[in-house]
Amino acid sequence: MKTALHNEQIINLHMLNREDYQQIFDYAKRGNLQCPDCLGSVKLYLGIEHEPYFYHTQPSNKSCQEAEIPNGSDLTEPEVIERNGFIMPVSRSITLVEASPKTNFKKAVTVKNIPVFINQEFNKNQVDSSYLTKLLECGIRLDEKQAAAVLYTEGSLLVLAGAGSGKTRVLTARTAYMVIEKEIDPQSIMLVTFTAKAAAEMKERLLQYPFMTRSNVQKIVSGTFHSIFYRILSFHSPQRWNNQKLLNKEWQRLQILKNAGREIHLDEKQFAYDLAIQQISFWKNSLLTPDDIHTKDDWEEKVKYIYQKYEEEKSKKGLFDFDDMLLGCYELFKNEPAILENYQNRFKYFLIDEFQDINKVQFELMKLLATKAGNICAVGDDDQSIYAFRGSNPSYLVDFEKEFPLTTVVKLEQNYRSSHEITASANQVIIQNKKRRAKKMIAQYKNDNYPVLFYPYDEEEEATMLITDIQEKIKHGFMPEDFAILYRTHSSSRAVFERLAASSLPFKLDQDAESFYDRFIVRTFLAFMRMAIDEENHSALKELLPSLFVKTSLLQDLKADSILNDRSLLECLCHIKTGFAFQEGKLKKAVPIIRSLKEIPPLKAIEKIEQEIGLNDFINKRGNEGNKLEKGSDDVRDLKVAAKNFTSIADFLNHADHMRAMNKEIKNLNKSNPRAITLSTIHRSKGLEYKNVYIIGAVDGNLPHDHALEEYRNGDASSLEEERRLMYVAMTRAKDYLYISFLQKRRGRKAYPSRFLSSLINKRGSGQ
Ligand SMILES: Nc1ncnc2c1ncn2[C@@H]1O[C@H](COP(=O)(O)OP(=O)(O)OP(=O)(O)O)[C@@H](O)[C@H]1O
């Protein structure tokens, strides 16, 4: 059904402006739409599988007729007027829409452009081994390549493990084989994982192997690089490496850097300290002291200066950061050969997971320890290297044989996770990267569920469409834990969070994911609106003062003025003495503008704050515009998209407060709920798998991110390749169903499908 009644007026989906679909969806949700025929309540379907249509919420007694669209030859645009935000034909009839049909909706398409599936019987153990037979008896099956990697224990081994190829299975089966079958002392095995969670999972899985006892598992030295090397350091000098001296909070490090920055007059608000912190960590992990650095530009020169000062300050106070744990151990081994030898004699076998994410200091440490015994097994996938910003470098994996010339290489190319349709699509994306080791994932099965590419109008509709899809699937038997919604940066998840929060679906999100409405620039805009509806709002005033370049210390004067002269806090801004006539003039002008905000919808209010109060200046200074990933100006665009749904600022503010509270509640409630939909950045989803995966915001500027596109335009393709790997990681999390959203508008601007996927849409494929 393409028509419905709203306030006695016909709404026809063929006539509706594309951007109004969401609003109609919301009207329907509130019960404000009727069937033009039986006047029963109808809703709007806005999902992925079908084009939008109205449907009865209760079965209708009548067999309702569709309000027909004339089948005329008149395809000229009808005369239209705008009413209640909707475009309506001027001469319309209630039951008949006199207009030419125009379908604004772009239907979802499926990926078809992939090779046919060839059924291959790979999962047979062709290697004759009693160990493999024992494993099979316990239900643990290894394919030929996996078996080869498990049984090869002496010498250096590189396991190139494609996504979903069972590297965790290989690492655990190999460790169990060494301990149980080869009777290798578990204390001589070092098993390094990328996260503490992975280490715990590895131990848990090891216990499932025949004859592996808890005591054996506990004897294996396993953990992250940081945990293992920190244990070594604190054993040798517990005073120096006392964890009380660890700078474990980012603000602690920032404070030292900002103090150093003041010496060279760096503007605290404008200088991108968060990037500087990353750059310093990158240098440290690359074993570069300030003296080794040849700066590329003025920015790096400044970062180098504060890096030097940061190191001096730390050593003066005996403090250390996470990077120092690895550097400290590296220095210990270099300076104390006897200690190094001791560890070289103790550890005989090294297994390193996620080798593609290793950085220089980690690589050098492993080399120091492992070269003597020579039994090193590195497992990784260069296509899943996504931590370059932390100093990770896939070239240690790509060029592994240069450092360990007698290496045996085993390629695991069978993908046990995803269907052929998903695997082949992901292959097609990743082969376009130039810097990689050639390999190809081969799926074990096909299910005819081709990845779906869908075209929401904007972020709001994207959220609605995928929640509709999830609800439909749950009705058909899927569980909430079968779903993951993945995004490039956390800020892209605002609309999805809001839609999920309004539904009854359980969902979980990263513990460090702050609410969109808690972001600094967003809070500032909201403070203006709060002040407009409550002129005595003390905390809102405090929050907005910096954006007017008024010192918060003047807050006391404002309060005193308010009491003494009996005027509202907002009014007091007109009388405040800042010492600058120009600024006082601006404040006088700002007050009536702030007051006027309460009369207008929130979207208009945001524009007014930007343009008439002049917040753009403030955003330029304080909005982290120097940042690569998260800029204040982008937050303002996101805020406008969110505000579009509201007609009054009071409602919008209530909504924002509710969402902030929900963010905290959801994080507490579903922290460890295994029965929940996962909302996650792509980075955090690594290593995980779900039956259904939705990748949202797959458009140029987001994935690939703008910063990578800019670097590519300047001749450096490495970030773009890393972004493509992110897309690959996201796609390969899906087992059975994969949905990718091509927003038509992102942050209020026209958006274009991610260039990474053009080979899946166009027959001829694409370049970078
Ligand atoms: N030989 C096998 N036969 C059947 N299933 C297997 C086999 N090996 C692994 N699997 C299954 O394949 C899936 C992927 O395995 P695993 O999580 O170990 O992959 P991975 O290589 O670590 O993936 P990624 O690197 O993409 O995170 C798991 O569900 C695992 O149980």
UniProtKB/TrEMBL annotation:
Which one Pfam family would you cite for this protein? UvrD-helicase
Which top EC class is named for this enzyme in its record? isomerase
UvrD-like helicase C-terminal domain: which residues? 420-687
List, alphabetically, the GO terms of the cellular component aspect. cytosol; DNA helicase complex
Among the GO molecular function terms of this UniProt record, one is: ATP binding
Catalytic activity, EC: 5.6.2.4
Enumerate the UniProt keywords alphabetically.
Answer: ATP-binding, DNA-binding, Helicase, Hydrolase, Isomerase, Nucleotide-binding
Quote the record's binding site residues for ATP: 161-168
Q: Which reaction does it catalyse?
A: Couples ATP hydrolysis with the unwinding of duplex DNA by translocating in the 3'-5' direction; ATP + H2O = ADP + phosphate + H(+)
Q: Which residues form the UvrD-like helicase ATP-binding domain?
A: 140-419
An individual GO BP term:
recombinational repair
Annotated family: Belongs to the helicase family. UvrD subfamily.
> What is the name of the protein in this document?
DNA 3'-5' helicase
Source species: Cytobacillus horneckiae
